[in-house]
Specification:
The strands form two sheets. Strands 3-4-5 form a three-stranded antiparallel sheet, with helices on one face. A two-stranded antiparallel ribbon has the order 1-2. The chain is built from twelve helices and five strands. The N and C termini lie far apart (about 55 Å). Strand 3 and strand 4 form a beta hairpin. With about 325 residues, it is mainly α. It folds into two domains: about 230 residues, Rhomboid-like fold, CATH 1.20.1540; about 80 residues, no CATH class. It is elongated.
């Protein structure tokens, strides 16, 4: 039987609402402002820890642990499923949160530059769920609470190892310097395997959650990374360097549509002379993202929808500009 939620007092719900608000706000801000989600998640984890510490000080107990940490014996009850996620935003000590933040930021920021924001968030959540589900399955009847973002942190390493193992990232592995991702990931994984084998029955650290988070992201990394900002296996001078930016630019250009044909040919709403000249310039100079956008913007002002004769608007999908009919996108989505 899980927590008796009806026994949670109004004041305890208010404290939990404060914790949840401070946890979510940095994530929303990062998504809307299009800043790195790795940094948004880092800020979210830190604010969640500060709120957790404040609540423990005010209440005098581990309220958030009882409300949000993972308890395997309760895991599959409908009222307790949230714990598979919320447990990753709770931590047991300052060293615990700082250790996870170190990996999430140092590994997460360059990985996000490879994956893109949406795919990065997907990998992070797979690490959260993979770590927590693995630990819950291995300790099915236990009532011992588990908490922390370590499964997600190790998941980022697993994803990076699967897709761009030759990248070099700044990491405190013996010395603080650039190390190949493969070295960092395999060293951390081997350390967890050894620790799990030696201390699984006596340690307070959920080493199995680290391993299953790593494995889950390693297995699912390539299907998720496919079609991301940078092709899988790209070897350049690193995601934070000019080589990485060039790879992103090349990947985006590969997504640009074909402009050798157009929907106005044989349409009832043919292009006039000015629009025809713009279309010709587009074909001559539209092989770069920026110049294509400029000529498409001009064409959108001169042409009509070839389907209904309506106004044309320009929109962007993953940084690539396309023309749409203002009345219905199904009428025109070109190029």
């Amino acid at each position: 039987m899980g927590l008796i939620w009806s026994a949670v007092s109004t004041s305890q719900w208010l404290y939990a609402s404060l914790w949840l608000t401070l946890t979510i706000l940095p994530l929303i801000h990062a998504w809307i402002k299009r800043t790195p989600m790795a940094l948004g998640i880092g800020a979210s984890l830190m604010l969640a820890w500060l709120a957790q510490a404040f609540i423990e000080w005010r209440v005098g107990g581990d309220l958030m642990m009882f409300l949000g940490a993972l308890n395997p014996a309760w895991a599959l009850e409908l009222t307790e499923l949230h714990r598979f996620i919320t447990a990753a935003w709770l931590h047991g000590s300052t060293l615990h949160i700082l250790g996870n933040l170190l990996v999430i930021i140092l590994v997460g920021v360059p990985l996000e530059q490879r994956l893109g924001r949406g795919r990065f968030v997907a990998i992070y959540l797979i690490g959260v769920l993979g770590g927590n589900m693995g630990w819950a399955l291995a300790n099915w009847e236990s009532t011992r609470f588990s908490l922390g973002a370590s499964g997600a942190a190790f998941g980022l390493l697993g994803c990076y190892l699967a897709c761009w193992p030759r990248d070099e990232i700044e990491f405190p592995l013996i010395l603080i310097r650039k190390w190949p991702v493969a070295w960092v990931a395999l060293f951390k994984f081997a350390h967890e395997v050894l620790a799990y084998g030696l201390f699984s029955g006596t340690s307070n650290v959920a080493h199995l959650a680290h391993l299953t988070g790593f494995i889950a992201c390693y297995v699912l990394a390539k299907p998720i990374a496919k079609g991301g900002l940078v092709p899988i296996g790209t070897v350049d001078s690193g995601p934070s360097s000019q080589g990485g930016q060039d790879a992103i630019h090349t990947a985006m250009k590969s997504k640009m549509g074909d402009i050798s044909s157009d929907p106005w040919n044989n349409s009832e709403y043919l292009l006039d002379k000015a629009a025809s000249r713009t279309l010709q310039r587009l074909r001559e100079e539209g092989d770069e993202i920026e110049t294509r956008q400029a000529w498409l913007e001009q064409l959108s002002e001169q042409a009509m929808c070839p389907e209904c004769g309506g106004e044309i608007v320009i929109s962007a999908a993953s940084g690539i500009s396309v023309l749409n009919c203002s009345k219905s996108p199904s009428h025109l989505n070109w190029p």
